[in-house]
Amino acid sequence: MNSVRNFLSVYDLTAGEMYDILSRAALLKADRTLGGGYLKGKKIGLIFEKSSTRTRVSFEVGVAELGGHPIFMSPRDMQLGRGEPIKDTARVLSRYIDGAVIRTFEQARIEEFAVYFKKPVINGLTDLYHPAQILADIFTVYEAKSKMRNSTKKAADAALRDAGDIIKNLKIAYFGDANNMANSWISLQAVMGFELVLAMPDGFKADEWVASESRKRGGRFAVSHDKIGAAKDADVITTDVFISMGQEDNKEKIDKLKPFIIDDGVIGSAKKDVIFLHCLPVHRNEEVTEAVFERFSPYVFEEAENRLHVQKAIMEMLF
Ligand code: CP
Ligand code: NVA
Predict the structure, then answer these.
(1) Is 130 one of the annotated active-site residues of the chain?
(2) Angle at the Cα of 60 (from 68 to 33), degrees rounded to 5?
(3) From 39, 86, 240, 251, which residue has the greatest number of CB atoms within 10 Å?
């Protein structure tokens, strides 16, 4: 039996494991030295076929803080970039390193790597999903809504017992393109059970395969073309770039999405204590106005920091 655990999509973890990760992340955030020996002697490869600031650096720092050795690899400098098949790269690397974080294009590519690598693999973003990001996002939401900082295991566990109830009762409204972030919210909803509305222009809809995977697991979400209605009484408003990496700059698509910019009207329709999140990088005055972005920037940069703590908890569990 292959007992290797991967995190290629949200569905690779149970809800219980996700709450364990959030609980552990709270402790790791309160004490950056905690978990210092977890990855002692382990070499973790970071293979990035697309650009990255947050994911690359937070994983690199996270491996180092857990006592492991991160090895960053760019296809520009690897034979992978000259056409060496990913299954050969995987078979070679598995003889050198103990785990891998991969950012790539098709989900099938990371899945193929994982089959041949036979050691834990974490998805650092594909065209389909961004699962490490979405766990950091829900951690940030939970932190903001529970207004708790948990510095002891007992406090973290007690708080996390309530987290399910807090999260289940939230309304989260995602604005913009039906991309890897939208798909990640859809899959997280199927596991954690909050109310999810996707606000997007007429003619846009959720990825059909992602929607059917969510339905199989009892997930539910709404798609709305009415941006003020979608935001009504929301606890969380979130968005992402209109054009994702690997897509062509598509003016027609941007023009269609433009009316769905998050502005004061959207925020005004949400609950008074709404928070705004963005995985970054942001395109100011495209998906969100500069004013809204700056007003909520403390949450957005907390969200960016939380990548580190949540990913350390994921790595402790998988590596
Ligand atoms: N949010 C995110 O994944 O950022 P990077 O592209 O900088 O890694
Ligand atoms: N949807 C964006 C997310 C970047 C972190 C992209 O794939 O480019």
Answers:
(1) yes
(2) 60
(3) 240
| Class at the top of the CATH hierarchy for domain 134-306 | alpha beta
pLDDT more than 70, % of the chain = 95
Report whether 312 contacts 65 (CB < 8 A): yes
Per-residue confidence (pLDDT) for residue 3, from 0 to 100:
82
Q: Domain segments of the chain: what residues?
A: 10-130+308-318, 134-306
Query: In this structure, are residues 300 and 293 in contact, taking their beta carbons and an 8 Å threshold?
Result: yes
* Residue 77 DSSP SS3: helix
| Residue position matching structure tokens 């054009």 | 243
Q: Which atom of ligand 2 is nearest to the CA of 240?
A: 1
Residues with CB under 6 A from ligand 1: 52-55, 125, 133, 279-280
Residue type, 36: G
Q: Are 133 and 125 in contact (CB under 8 A)?
A: yes
Alpha-carbon distance of 92 to 79, in angstroms, equals: 12
Residue type, 155: A
